[in-house]
């Protein structure tokens, strides 16, 4: 049926911290190749939701299924990464003292450890993958430069490239445009739109101009539950959404 065809399926998910219900009966579905945006005020539960999907936090109740059959609540973080869920945190974690190209190579051969990676041959196939990723993240002209010399935006794109090297089926991206220039923000929307389709992408973001650029279905989270879902125009016209952002 439809559920087992969805890439990610959350139903009736709840989690409490010391009696405080951070996620409350949350349901959320992502289809293969679909891009989605999650918005919501501070404390809405966005981070906790991503933590549940990636196995960092185990829900008290509810169903979390990947590819229809894999119960993510039974797997730990490294299992879930291997299953094909990549997560990009807000702060870039590129290797500053390595070149752009070496960073991608490290990500591609991640399971082999840093030393053997830097001293092992790169196959023609791996080189082609690196070239393709450099194209996607538009950093081909910076491939030989140290990651330390990239702009803040370029570092974020490099990190997205490093996640792509792991070939995930689902990418979770936390506030990708925080601290970016307007031009970098526009470029990031283009990049994510290009990735979507091939991979599913869930973006957590506050920047409404950016979300409008993404042109995706938006889920508004408040007090651990879905408050509204639909186009940005649809959710931003919702009285409860306006209230939850402006406060009562
Ligand atoms: P958001 O990312 O939308 O700002 P969070 O998921 O970080 O929201 O937090 C949701 C709520 O859960 C907040 O009230 C936060 O204080 C609480 N919370 C999150 N993680 C923990 C934790 N490990 N222990 C206790 N409370 C937590």
UniProtKB/TrEMBL annotation:
<dbReference type="InterPro" id="IPR027417">
    <property type="entry name" value="P-loop_NTPase"/>
</dbReference>
<dbReference type="InterPro" id="IPR017781">
    <property type="entry name" value="ABC_transptr_urea_ATP-bd_UrtD"/>
</dbReference>
<dbReference type="GO" id="GO:0005886">
    <property type="term" value="C:plasma membrane"/>
</dbReference>
<dbReference type="InterPro" id="IPR003593">
    <property type="entry name" value="AAA+_ATPase"/>
</dbReference>
<dbReference type="Pfam" id="PF00005">
    <property type="entry name" value="ABC_tran"/>
</dbReference>
<protein>
    <submittedName>
        <fullName>Urea ABC transporter ATP-binding protein UrtD</fullName>
    </submittedName>
</protein>
<keyword id="KW-0067">ATP-binding</keyword>
<dbReference type="InterPro" id="IPR032823">
    <property type="entry name" value="BCA_ABC_TP_C"/>
</dbReference>
<keyword id="KW-0547">Nucleotide-binding</keyword>
<dbReference type="GO" id="GO:0016887">
    <property type="term" value="F:ATP hydrolysis activity"/>
</dbReference>
<dbReference type="InterPro" id="IPR051120">
    <property type="entry name" value="ABC_AA/LPS_Transport"/>
</dbReference>
<dbReference type="Pfam" id="PF12399">
    <property type="entry name" value="BCA_ABC_TP_C"/>
</dbReference>
<dbReference type="InterPro" id="IPR003439">
    <property type="entry name" value="ABC_transporter-like_ATP-bd"/>
</dbReference>
<feature type="domain" description="ABC transporter">
    <location>
        <begin position="8"/>
        <end position="248"/>
    </location>
</feature>
<dbReference type="GO" id="GO:0005524">
    <property type="term" value="F:ATP binding"/>
</dbReference>
<keyword id="KW-0813">Transport</keyword>
């Amino acid at each position: 049926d439809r559920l087992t065809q969805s890439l990610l399926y959350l139903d009736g998910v709840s989690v409490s911290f010391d009696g405080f219900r951070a996620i409350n009966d949350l349901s959320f579905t992502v289809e293969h190749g679909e891009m989605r945006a999650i918005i919501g005020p501070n404390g809405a539960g966005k981070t906790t939701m991503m933590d549940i999907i990636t196995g960092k936090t185990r829900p008290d109740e509810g169903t979390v299924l990947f590819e229809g059959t894999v119960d993510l609540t039974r797997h730990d973080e490294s299992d879930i990464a291997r299953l094909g869920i990549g997560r990009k945190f807000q702060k870039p974690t590129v290797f500053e003292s390595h070149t752009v190209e070496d960073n991608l190579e490290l990500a591609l051969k991640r399971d082999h450890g840093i030393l053997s990676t830097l001293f092992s041959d790169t196959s023609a196939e791996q080189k082609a993958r690196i070239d393709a990723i450099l194209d996607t993240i538009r950093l081909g002209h910076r491939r030989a430069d140290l990651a330390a010399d990239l702009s803040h935006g370029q570092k974020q794109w490099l990190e997205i490239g490093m996640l792509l090297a792991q070939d995930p089926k689902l990418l979770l991206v936390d506030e990708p445009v925080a601290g970016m220039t307007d031009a970098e923000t526009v470029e990031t929307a283009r990049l994510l739109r290009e990735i979507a389709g091939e991979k599913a992408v869930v973006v957590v973001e506050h920047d409404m101009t950016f979300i409008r650029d993404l042109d995706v279905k938006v889920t508004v989270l408040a007090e651990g539950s879905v408050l509204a879902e639909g186009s940005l125009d649809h959710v931003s016209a919702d009285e409860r959404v306006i209230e939850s952002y402006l406060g009562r």
